[in-house]
Design a protein that fits this description.
The complex is a heterodimer of chains A (443) and B (287). Chain A is of the alpha/beta class. Chain A contains 14 helices and 17 strands. In chain A, the strands form four sheets. In chain A, strands 1-14-13-17-15-16 form a six-stranded mixed beta sheet. Chain A is globular and about 60 Å long. The radius of gyration of chain B is 27 Å and the shape is elongated. Classes of the chains: A alpha/beta (443), B alpha+beta (287).
Chain lengths: 443, 287
């Protein structure tokens, strides 16, 4: 069975919610929709306070090429456009809507029947994806239309669909593959058409045998698409790792996957593309896993963007009393949130609740030079060295040691027996080296 | 036996002299001629290599002074006017009088004033915490309390107060080298004039949010009400982005602005206690 070569770790999988079917979460009374839910420039609002909006209506327009449109996820009145705290506690401009009823914008097909035929040409598909505000649903939230446009001089050969879900606990992609397989496959066909490729491979880790069997059965009707089972190893869902695992090509340092003829999209994105192109439905809801060892009912919810996290936790049985930390995302790459009132955004793949005993960090001790961080780094870097260099502000040395290649997967931090803040220090260094490079290119 | 001794002494002696001659010639050929005044100036500098002058270290400042042949724009904060005068006398130059400066902390968001809502237990670095979240108290402008400034201080002039969670600047040890200013990711520490009798008045807040959200996270935040601006007769206070700033060059230390502040965010340091009606406006944070 295939996997990537270099490094990787095996954290306990803890897929507690894998058997829980996707439930539609009831509409909240207020939705708060941040204007920056994607990588790139924040969108600029096109509605004003007091305006009546319908679900699916455009409320903020993407500003620039790398940006994304934002649509209202509910019908109601715009209560305010103001700075609201996001999951980090920093205040970001958001549109707050008081929900009244559930009225949808005209032209959006809410029916469940499958539409297989797509008559649009590649440019029209990309335009539609752009218009409907689709972004990468794996967590990085890179605007999808940018990835569907092949830069001049490059050629896409294969579309890789990421169904790996290598983060422990999370199951939203898993459930989507089981419940919306046909829609997702049509979405993949549309993406293939936009990119002009005849081949697509869906990579799924071996811990989801039901999804692999289900999709292997389904792809028979979809020419060009194949399903590949992969050995379980974190971080297989990383773009570069997945390309290496599936087609055995290595993306050069500092380059994009298109360099080796590959384009990678998440299964969630494929589904969103289907809804946008075939059903005319913008990205206003997503599947969110709400899970945790002490949570009463670990679940997968289809939640509207802007729903407060507290509503999701309530629907999953309420916050356990011994909660130590609530994380937005998976345990490896997710970040702890500072308040339960923060909204679900386009990039929220899961809400993870850690009991107090698991939330605390290991005490920091001295590096014992065991080199385990070196062995597990999927990018072949030397985390122990980078962390020290970053700590001492030796930025040129950091750059020479390829700090910019770090994908921030956290494998080094996970494996370190001394509990050293390896990734934390590298992140600081990476940000500073990034600034340094930007400054240099300006001169 | 004697012969062997003789041969070894003579041959080693010969090799030694040849090597010495070569070394001497090479040393002459590659001799670096340095201005002897650089050594004189470097001798007079404190030798702390703190970087407060804006250059790499004391030697770099000495070289710069000798090269420029003037003391304009050159300053050694830890040495102060005394050292600069000394150097000026040695080089026969004119030293300009500099106002002594000192670091002040423009945040009073202690645990009491800005109660923590979440607990941070990750890597204790302000730079990292700043990239991660707003802060335990919720204020995204205030002190993160991880002590990057204390780490940066090479003069032992700062320490973290475990009770308040804020750094404390020791007036008698601070030499205004700006290492802490550079280390703080939120630009909370400011260099201000030391002031007459060490007296200083400043707005101890850098929060640029509107009054409501600022006050929500911290009881001593500047809410941008503008009362101090109206009170000041010397145009020393300006208001920008809901944040008041006192210009230390214009401030006459009359301290009329302090009692009018509704959130007590203006601090007065090293003043004698007020006489008429006890005003518990603020207590000096540093001792």
């Amino acid at each position: 069975m295939k996997t990537f070569k270099l490094g990787g770790v095996h954290p306990p999988e803890n897929k507690l919610s894998e058997k829980a079917p996707i439930e539609v979460l009831p509409l909240p009374s207020v939705v708060s929709i941040p204007l920056s839910q994607h990588l790139g420039a924040p969108a600029s609002p096109v509605v004003a306070k007091g305006d009546k909006v319908k679900a699916g209506q455009l409320i903020a327009k993407g500003a620039g090429f790398i940006s994304a449109n934002i649509h209202s996820s509910a019908s109601g009145t715009v209560a305010k456009i103001d700075d609201m705290p996001d999951s980090s506690g920093y205040r970001k401009k958001s549109i707050v809507i008081n929900v009244e009823g559930d009225e949808w914008e005209e032209g959006i097909d809410l029916g469940s029947e499958l539409i297989r035929e797509c008559s649009l040409n590649p440019q029209e598909i990309t335009a539609k994806v752009n218009e409907k505000g689709i972004v990468g649903m794996g967590g990085a939230t890179f605007p999808s239309h940018v990835k569907l446009m092949v830069p001049p001089g490059k050629k896409a050969e294969v579309l890789i669909i990421n169904g790996v879900e290598c983060e422990p606990y999370l199951t939203s992609d898993h459930r989507l593959m089981l419940e919306k397989a046909d829609e997702m496959l049509v979405g993949i066909t549309i993406q293939m058409k936009a990119l002009g490729v005849s081949k697509a491979i869906i990579g799924i880790e071996n811990n989801k045998p039901d999804a692999i069997a289900h999709l292997k059965n389904k792809v028979k009707d979809y020419p060009g698409i194949s399903v590949e089972a992969l050995k379980v190893k974190y971080p297989q869902g990383g773009e570069k790792q997945l390309i290496k695992a599936l087609i055995n090509r290595e993306v050069p340092s500092g380059k994009l996957p298109i360099e080796v003829g590959a384009v990678v999209h998440n299964v969630g994105t494929a589904f969103a593309v289907y809804e946008a192109v075939q059903k005319n439905k913008p990205l206003v809801e997503r599947v969110v896993t709400v899970t945790g060892k002490n949570l009463k009912k670990p679940s997968n919810f289809l939640a509207r963007i802007g729903t407060p996290v507290s509503a999701l936790i309530e629907a999953a049985g309420g916050l356990p009393t011994d909660t130590g930390k609530v994380v937005n995302g998976g345990p490896m790459m997710g970040k702890a949130i500072t308040s339960l009132e923060v909204p679900v955004t386009k990039g929220t793949s899961g809400i993870l609740i850690f009991p107090e005993r698991e939330a605390a960090r290991k005490p920091v001790q001295n590096c014992i030079r065991c080199a385990r961080c070196l062995n597990v780094c999927p990018m072949g870097l030397e985390p122990y060295l980078l962390s020290v260099l970053a700590d001492r502000k030796r930025l040129e040395d950091c750059e020479a040691e390829r700090i910019m290649d770090c994908i921030e997967c956290g494998s080094c931090l996970y494996i370190c027996p001394s509990g050293r803040p390896l990734l934390d220090q590298i992140r600081v260094g990476k940000a500073e080296v990034g600034n340094m490079i930007r400054k240099r290119s300006q001169h | 036996m004697n012969e062997i001794t003789l041969i070894s002494v003579v041959s080693l002696g010969a090799i030694g002299s040849v090597a010495a001659i070569i070394l001497y010639l090479v040393a002459q050929k590659f001799k670096v001629i340095e201005d002897p005044r650089i050594d004189i100036v470097a001798e007079k500098l404190p030798g702390a290599n703190c970087g407060g002058c804006g250059l790499a270290g004391c030697r770099a400042l000495a070289e710069a002074i000798v090269k420029a042949e003037s003391l304009e724009g050159m300053n050694c904060p830890p040495g102060g006017n005394e050292v600069m005068k000394d150097i000026a006398a040695a080089l026969g130059l004119e030293a300009e009088e500099q106002d002594p400066m000192i670091a002040v902390l423009r945040c009073n968001g202690s645990r009491e004033n800005s109660p923590p809502k979440v607990k941070y237990d990750s890597y204790m670095s302000c730079a990292f915490a700043h990239s991660l979240f707003a802060g335990e108290g919720g204020c995204s402008f205030g002190c993160l309390g991880c002590g990057d400034c204390v780490e940066a201080c090479t003069f032992d002039a700062m320490y973290m107060d475990p009770a308040s969670g804020l750094p404390v600047i020791l007036d008698d040890k601070c030499v205004a080298c700006v290492a802490c200013v550079k280390a703080c990711p939120r630009s909370i520490i400011e260099m201000r004039k030391k002031g007459k009798k060490d007296r200083r008045i400043f707005v101890s807040c850098v929060n640029k949010e509107k009054g409501g959200p600022a006050k929500k996270n911290c009881s001593v935040a500047c809410i941008g009400c503008g009362k101090c601006v109206k009170e000041c007769k010397f145009d020393a206070i300006t208001m920008e982005n809901y944040l008041a700033y006192i210009d230390y060059d214009k401030c006459t230390l009359c301290r009329k602005c302090v009692p009018v502040c509704p959130t007590n965010s203006i601090l007065e340091l090293n003043f004698p206690p007020r006489k008429p009606k006890v005003d518990v406006a603020t207590e000096a944070v540093s001792g």
